[in-house]
Description:
Its main location: membrane. With 323 residues, the protein is α+β, with helices and mostly antiparallel strands.
Amino acid sequence: MELFKEDKVYNFLGKGKIFFVASFVLFFLAIALIATKGFSFGIDFTGGTVVQVKYQGPAPIDKVREALEKDELFKHAAVSEFGSPEEIVIKTAASTDGLSKDIGDVTREILKGTGEFEIRRVDMVGPKVGDELRVKGLTAFLLTLGAIMAMVTFRYEWRFALAAIIAIVHDIVITFGFVSYFEIDFNIESVAALLMILGYSIHDTIIVYDRIREHIQESKNSDFVMIVNEAVSRTQSRTTLTSLTVFFVVLTLFLFGGDIMLGFSFPMLVGVIIGTYSSIFVAAQLVVWTGFSVGRYREKMAEKQKMQAEKEKMRAQFEQGIV
């Protein structure tokens, strides 16, 4: 399916400065948000207890809070609507691991008299387990980021590698900023979403970079901006179709998955948009601004091909017993 004409070159870098300024502003706003507001960590990382309750009609949140305040376990619990007016979620930082009674039964007893309801979910995480999950999640993220950076550095000329690494950091920080701003619970599902964003973002960037390298070798044009515009234009149908496919799948999760999926679906939704945008308007633009020279690159490639040909020649002579 062809969404963009193959023979038409779009001037993606023509408005590069405007898009880069927008990225710059978003990036530093995200850093400011993360530094000042921080994250709303879920019980996966902080430890505690979450009880999800569904009422027959609209949940009487005020009555629920009054009832919970009378019990020491739920004295400082947070009560909020969860997906619909009938459902609420009760969060407390207190660990209930040591209770002899089931926490669902305890909650049912406390809320007796507030209306007809059912306990739909009870999650409990001890503080030690929460600390372990937080450390392991951060470790997985940093190891993945480091592996991607090493792979890109090894595979591409340093200007391409530097631009790709900056683009990845750009995507992750802005996604973190949106999560912080909208106070989405940051849990183990959010870490999974961020790892997927890393892979998606670098995959999109590599597709563009590979096409740029092909155009440098195949084209007689020495204008690098024109080569980049040609390469990006040739990948647009593929990029758009892939991005839209992922976007609509994640959008479905976001709209119909409920609040329980929000920690995964929201970062993914933002990450797909930002990752697609950055592969065109950040990663490609940065390579141009680093002063990449088409002439020097072609000379290096010609030298490598010459050395490879000499090696192949010597190997062939050795195999034939000439050397």
